[in-house]
Amino acid sequence: MSQWSQVQQLEIKFLEQVDQFYDDNFPMEIRHLLAQWIESQDWEAASNNEAMATILLQNLLIQVDEQLDRVSQEKNLLLIHNLKRIRKLLQGKYHGNPMHIAVIISNCLREERRILAAASMPVQGPLEKSLQNSVVSERQRNVEHKVSAIKNSAQMTDQDVKYLEDLQEEFDFRYKTIQSLEQSDKNSTLIKQEMLALQAMLNTLDYKRKEVLSKIGRVIHEIDMLMSNMLTEELLDWKRRQQIACIGGPLHGGLDQLQNCFTLLAESLFQVRRQLEKLDELLTRLTYDGDPIPVQRPQLLEKVNFLLYNLFRNSFVVERQPCMPTHPQRPMVLKTLIQFTVKLRLLIKLPELNYQIRVKATIDKNVSTVSNRRFVLCGTHVKAMNMDESANGSLSVEFRHLQPKEMKSSAGSKGNEGPHMVTEELHSISFETQVCLYGLTINLETSSLPVVMISNVSQLPNAWASIIWYNLSTNDPQNLSFFNNPPAATLSQLLEVLSWQFSSYVGRGLNSEQLSMLAEKLMGQQVSYNDYQLSWAKFCKEHLPGKSFTFWVWLEAILDLIKKHILPLWIDGYVMGFVSKEKERILLKDKTPGTFLLRFSESNLGGITFTWVDQLENGDVTFHSVEPYNKGRLSALPFADILRDYKVIMADNVPENPLKYLYPDIPKDTAFGKHYSCQPSEVSKPSDGGGKGYVPSVFIPVSKILHDSTEQHSPSDLLPMSPSVYAVLREHLSPTVIETAV
């Protein structure tokens, strides 16, 4: 079943999450129509390879054309129209930047896998529950309702101001008419009646002026209350969701809704400002004793300007945090002299601002960090915000060619901090601009979440651990001295984030049993871990008992192993992975001989092994574990082929494959058959001779097991067999079973 077919079978709450990340950048219609083709392409590799991305984009457009031909024959007018529009959009948007669509599709596929993994989990973790709080959703709806009501109130006040203007013009005309009469005419009865009518009109004008000012005051108060309470909370919640998404959590949405609210409020405030300007204009033409305009208008205008300043300052946000394109799952870790991207958005979308706001990027502006290391940004660090580059027309700017460069210290050399000191240093990338609109000049500043600067890719794992710990532990966007005294983290939340590392990076999260094993490894004992507090040192700095590496280095090596060598097996759920030796034996002891499971090595970094259960002639149960396979061996032989072809030579020199059933009872070929490479070809006999007179050799994973041995066995795989050993195998195996799987 394709991944997209699995997605379509999810519950509605998960489908709503899927809906959030499909838009005009990558329309869902294309995902649906080209599901199998899309899933068969390597979009992640293309996201870092422009030539490959160009070819994939061309092939994507060809696939869309083929779909167009098909629906044209079916005369599906609506689908024809949509596909033509989508094709034009894709070609226009990505023709000059094909790697961008590769990044987008790769992210969408990865997020689908994360949601599928979350849907298969029995319970949500505490962090994800907090992000989906029903109270938060209710507040979002209330904000949108109140913003709409404020916009309507401001428009209604416009009508009141227009009525006031018309009334004053009539008064002005009638008053000037009387003033133009001769003095003798002013004493007539009709004129006296007109004067009484004018006095009544003046009273009405005074009442309407007070009424308009009162309505303007109420609109300003409602905006003030909304900005101070619910809108501020919404923005803070969005920023927190962004933090969580950056460390592998659910993709954050809601920025378009916030943009709509900010824009409507800005439009309402500018509308109120124009109303106050109109009142000032009316004041210059008519005033009187007790006129409320000169008393109330200055205060109201000052309040409007104050709210506009605050609204604009809060609307300047980092839409996408700094990230190296080469490591899309590791945002906020930046390597010196390597380009990174970052995207800014102004949530107030006004046409007058298009291409009028120039944003400048700097690093560590007016900030003292925990070391003497200092950096500058190279590349294009000043760009104009515009509405043309974003699919949804938002007012944004994306810096794509920034590079951090470390400055030499005053002594002429770089700092000598240790590896942990470097990866615990936090830096800030700041952005500043100025908005000039309708006589207002507003200076805007914002900053990225703290970033870690590395000079060597070997520092990336520990740097990423720092990013995880920071964003898990605090919602403070600028605590650059955080690691001077890092707080402990709740283990239940940390385990949830660790599961996210697997779902976001290798497409499948961890189940409760796997998380329990990690909890035991971190705590050293099996107790309830819901309220357990784990220190930063225990997570990333202290070595595991009896080992030469930390917990995080061990886990990161496993992630790398999965990603590069056993990804399909992991996504299918056939790698139990995190299970202790003791638990392994409990699971296998009552199973059919030949039942095996796959687990990650606890003693070797980035190693995977398999253990199978066997039965001796006396009925006793025995267990055999092969020496862990690391990336060196797996680079030569695919792991699925190793499982297929693995042989043991027993005491009587009869080779056989002991692996029959994947735990609990899945036939081995049923589980791994689709991942086998092509069947091995015929292998020439040793007597046939080889090229240039050499006897041909063959690679095959083999172990020798003695019945009285209980030690872990080392496979002699990847070593050339001697002709004598090979001849023994040929006596018992057909040539098609023996593979040269290199």
UniProtKB/TrEMBL annotation:
Keyword tags: Acetylation, Activator, ADP-ribosylation, Coiled coil, Cytoplasm, DNA-binding, Isopeptide bond, Methylation, Nucleus, Phosphoprotein, SH2 domain, Transcription, Transcription regulation, Ubl conjugation
Presence of the UniProt keyword Acetylation in the record: yes
Keyword Transmembrane helix in record: no
GO MF entries: DNA binding; DNA-binding transcription factor activity, RNA polymerase II-specific
The organism's place on the tree of life at top rank: Eukaryota
GO biological process: cell surface receptor signaling pathway via JAK-STAT; defense response to virus; negative regulation of developmental process; regulation of apoptotic process; type I interferon-mediated signaling pathway; type II interferon-mediated signaling pathway
PROSITE patterns the record matches: SH2 (PS50001)
SH2 domain sequence ranges: 570-672
PANTHER family tied to this protein: SIGNAL TRANSDUCER AND ACTIVATOR OF TRANSCRIPTION
Name of the featured protein: Signal transducer and activator of transcription
